[in-house]
Structure formats: structure tokens, C-alpha cells
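Researcher: Good morning. I'm working through a list of sequences from a screen, and I'd like to move beyond sequence-only analysis. For each chain I'm collecting a predicted structure so we can compare shapes side by side. This is the next one on the list. No need for commentary yet; just the structure.
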Amino acid sequence: MSRFGRALRTEAREVLADRGALLILVGAVVVYAFFYPTPYLNEVLKKVPVVVADLDHSALSRQLTRMADASERIAVTAVVADVVEGERRVRDGGAGGLLVIPDGFERKVRRGEPVAVGAFADASYFLVYSQVLTGLLESAGTLSAGISITRLGASGVRRTQALALVDPVPLLFRPLFNPAEGYAVYIVPAVLILILQQTLLIGIGMRGPAPAADGGGPASKFGEALAVVLGRGAVFLALGLANLFFYLAVVEGVFGFPRRGSPVVLTLFALPFLTATAALGLALTTFFTRRETAMQVLLVTSLPAVFLASFSWPPEAIPGWVRGLSAVLPTSAAIPGFLRINQMGASLAQVRGEWAALWILVAVYVPLAAWLQLRHWRKAAPAP
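Model: Good morning. C-alpha cells for this chain:
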């Protein structure tokens, strides 16, 4: 049997017998698959509690309060008599925002005088801030538009003309690739790819480098080490493909995430990603003297990998040297590629840049892993 075949068969047999590695390579993948998306099942933050400080106590101020409460983004939980009480409730965490309707609000509106309402949102939590501010602005804008239309109607302008005058350039808004505008659809598919990389790296790290019996002693050649790396890598590639399609076909189906990618395109794109990840894992194993070290070191890298993957923050806003550093991780090219294929229906030609970047990593990490494996054998070999 060839060196490649022997390494493949040995690794497959030993992985199935290694409960610790299987717990990471299979168990953790399944647990994370259903645990991580669960907190985001509601998708969109709705009915954030807000307080209204109504200093006018008029019919128009009460109408604005009702319109704010009718918004799906916010819910009016209390109407207070002064701003100080409203601010206290926001500071205490009882509300995410405050709407201040000034004294003389209705009188100024009826006179045609400009009047401003105050919208204050808790910016310490960005999602709360966004929903509160948008909900209050929409409510005030709707009331303002209704008042303008009423005034125009009173002056003899027909309703259709009044609508055109109030909103001369209407905006037709259609969210693409994330119709519900949900956080889960945005974050979970990207994180699943990252989890796949990290579990594969940790599992391979726990397996350690191939012992000298699989390669030889100080006289071993680079070709023997390369055959062993390719044989072991084929096992992890197969595991990675199984886990990937479990995520794409089962997990994303259960949670209702968009799935527009062709299975053939996804497979072709996954090959360099999983090969590069497996090769990187096999290269790193030569630096770990104990199984536990691999888990400790690689777990620490998970959080930096999230930020380097450029989906939690726009890549254009990341410093150039950080973006260059992120290129060493397969997920930096894999995550945008997978998202464009599976959620946007992109073809392989449309992600050729990311695909090429992954093949470059394969060309770097596979010989690097073989060289490090050969160096490990020679260090471990007894002196002649």
C-alpha cells in the first residue's frame, strides 16, 4: 500500500477511536449548529419600551403618543409629566428611549409655526438605539406628513396632489437577500463557517503530528511527508464536507435561512477552503506538545478570527495591515464567498477572487505542513 493510502487508512481508523477529537470534530459541530442560532430566532428587535414626556397634554400630543405606540419597533410603556422622570427611567434601564413633546406643541402646529420634538435613545446598545430612533422618527414624520396633507386639502388641493407635494420623490425600499431584515440571517451563516474552521483546527490539533512510524527517521524525504499530510488531510476534508453540508442542508433549512446556492458550486468552493484549513491544522500540530495545548491555543484565536473575517465590521473600515493579516485565515476568503453563493445565488465565476485566494492558501499550507511534519520526524528520531 502507498504511503498516502496507509496514512489515510490509519488516520481514519484512529480518528474514529479518538473520543476527544470526535467530540470536537463532530459533537461540537452539532451542538453549535443548534445552540448558536437559538438566541436569534426572533430575528428582529421589536417593541422596545420607550417613555413619553408629554409637556403639552393636548389632543395632538396624545395622537403622536398613540402613533409611536402603534409602531412595530417601539412600545410606549409610560407617559410622564416631566423630562427628569423620563430620563431617570432610561438610565435605570426601564426604557430604551425618551420622546419629549414640548409645551405649546399643538398651538404652534395650528399656527403653522415650526416645532421640534425631542427623541433620545440609549446608544449604549446599538440595536436598541437604532430601533428607538427609527421608530420615533417614523412616528413624527408620519404625523408631520398628515398635518401637511390636511393643510393642503383645506386650501383646495386634491388629496392625490397633496400626497405628491408632501412626498414628491417616494422611495421604494426592497431589502435584498435578507427579506426579514433579521439579525440571524445576517450573522449566523457567517459564524457557522467560522465554527467549521475552528472545530476542524482544534480537532486536528488534538490529533497531533503523525508519529515517525508513519514516515520514517532522519533519512525520510519530503515526498513521504507530503504523502502522509495528503492522506491525513483527506480524512479531515471528508469530515469537513460532511459537516458543511449538514450546516447548509439541515441547519439552515431548520432555521429558514436563504439557500440559493448550487450544490455543485458550493462543493467546488468548499474544496480549497477545507483543504487549506486541514493543511493549516496539520502544520500547527507540530508545535503542540500536548493535546490540551491545541485546544487552549486555538480557542483563544476564535474571537480574533471573528473580527478578521470582515463580516462583523465593513472590511473597508479595517486598517490595511489588519486586512493583510486576515488573509492567512481561510475564513477571510471563505465567508464572503459562501455568503454570496448560498444567499445571493452567485456562480463560481462571480466568486473567483475568493476561490483563487483559497487555492493560494492550499499551495502555501500543504507544502508547509509537509515540511513541518518532516522536521518533526527528524527531531524525534534518535541520534545515530
